[in-house]
Amino acid sequence: MDFSFPKKERLTGKKHFERVFVEGKQLKAFPLKLVYADVQFRDNVPVKAAFVAPKRAFKKAVHRNRIKRLLREAYRLNKHLIFNNIEGNFAFVFLYLGKDLPDFKQVDGQMKSLLKSFLKKEFHEKNP
């Protein structure tokens, strides 16, 4: 298994973000929210991900960066759950909805449940 999170797997670009938020579907596992869309990428990466912490809830950049770092780490350790089981290309945006600074254990558990519910939802939609 590859536990890296290289630059090519990061979601960048205004057009991709707009498409995810306009056409995307949502899943929640408090304090995380996943917004995703089926997107074709030129570099043929199965999933590209971005992580967001709200400035309204966390005024200090240090706190927002810490949250995004925890989200990236949890995703990096659990992305094998989806990379081995999906067909097609997806763009993910993970949003942190909580009001308090999380610990890694909480974020990791919710990330696992979010990725599993994504697989369940997509699998059942494609194979009724």
Overview of this structure, please?
There is one protein chain. The chain is α+β, with helices and mostly antiparallel strands and 128 residues long. It has a single domain, classed as Ribosomal Protein S5, domain 2 (2-Layer Sandwich), CATH 3.30.230.10. Helix content is 43%, strand content 20%. The chain contains four helices and four strands; from the N terminus they run αβββααβα. It has a four-stranded mixed beta sheet with strand order 1-2-4-3, sandwiched between helices. Helix 2 crosses helix 4. The longest helix is centred in the last third of the chain and has 23 residues. The protein starts with 13 loop residues before the first helix and ends with a helix. The model has no long low-confidence stretch (mean pLDDT 92). InterPro entries: Ribosomal_Su5_D2-typ_SF, Ribsml_uS5_D2-typ_fold_subgr, RNase_P, RNase_P_CS. Consists of a catalytic RNA component (M1 or rnpB) and a protein subunit.
What are the SSEs and their pairings?
Layout: H1 14-23, E1 25-29, E2 32-38, E3 47-52, H2 61-78, H3 80-83, E4 90-96, H4 104-126
Parallel strand pairs: 3-4
Antiparallel strand pairs: 1-2, 2-4
Helix pairs in contact: 2-4
